[in-house]
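Summary for the steering committee. The consortium agreed at its last meeting that each partner would contribute one worked example illustrating the joint modelling workflow. Our contribution is presented below. We chose a case with several input lines so that the handling of multiple components could be demonstrated. No manual editing was applied between input and output; the record is shown as generated.
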Amino acid sequence: MSMKNMIAERAAHALEEYSVINLGIGIPTLVTNYLDKEKFYLHTENGLLGVTSVEEEDVDPNIVNAGKQPVGEATGASYFHSADSFAMIRGSHVDVAILGVLQVDEKGRVANWAIPGKDIIGVGGAMDLLVGAKKVIITTNHTAKDGSPKFLKKCTFPITSTRPVDMIITELAVFERKDDKFELIELMGDTTLEEIAEKTEADYTVSELLKGSVE
Amino acid sequence: MKSKITDLKSALQPVKDGDTLMVGGFGLIGAPLSLIDELTKLEVKELTVVSNNVGEAGKGLGILLDQGKLKKAIGSYFTSNREVAKWYNAGKLELQLLPQGTLGEAIRAGGAGIGGFYTKTSVGTDLAKGKETKEIDGEEYVLEKALKSDVSIVRAHKADRLGNLVYYKTARNFNPMMATAGKYVVAEVDEIVEVGELNPEEIATQHIYVDKLVLTEQILTKEGVVQK
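What follows is the complete predicted structure of the assembly.
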């Protein structure tokens, strides 16, 4: 299984059945492959509650997700305009948002919309989702392309929101925010505590359970 | 009943230099493609466009950009057209970037006679810089102004002769709010039916918002945009 699929599968396990989920572009979109679609209500901010997958021959160019990819219409689905869609998001009617990031820091703040020195010309729904979703799960590669950590003490890129995220899932580790600090609760694949420490800049605690299982 | 049905050219007659135009659509989905095409034939300049994106490179509103007809773009995601950054960096295009939900709500407010609204979205970020903030019940909010237009061009699925509109799937997106926020509103539709044929429960935009109706000449297919 690819790294991205491994992260997506783990994120799917973090979801409670019958909750309303909004998936970002990239790894989050892959989460649908690991969900029993009958048991979740997928929301897309361009105006559909009840997203499902679609076979190539059934593609309708006027049914897309926020990444403009063709999607299907689940039983019980409904359409609405963008103002209503973001009322659902800001009004805390979406249970979980799963988002990708450029950086995330130990306070749980996310940077995922702008890179310094590059043109800041797109934000989409990222700021609204971070403010409004009841729970935010981050799915990301543990390090950037150049190998530098993405889980930092403090974001160096412009932040998307001051609201702290709840969970961070990478190909190496799962962190959960508890009492304003992230705790490493799970190792992914055959990684070690040392490898995670080496590739992480942020301060975090290690679950007592995990310490026991490793030793 | 005065007929609202007209042709593309007549429908855009009122567009003049310096106008603010709202254009429906999420990328090309739900965009009034025939009206946009007609806009590219007009001799107008200094337009401000309110739309989620500025089309794609060389497509939709992207053509208007290439023609140098735009002074300013207000939207949430200009990344979908790489030409936008070039014009912006050359100092030939002003940009106002808003979170997508703020954009939608600002248009809704504009059409509903509301001057602005407080939202938590963007608080503490670069997009809130220079904007007034207010603490309400212990939480910080940022003030966003409403948006209105001189002309709104929207895309719907069906209209009746009165101008009541019904939308199709995710092609609805920004269109219903834009229809309420324009001084002059043109709707591009697939089909115009007799009054009474639309189910009153399904009408999403009431005829009072719509000034003109035109039949579409371009449709979005799996293979891209084609002439009808």
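The radius of gyration of chain A is 17 Å. Chain A has one domain: 3-214.
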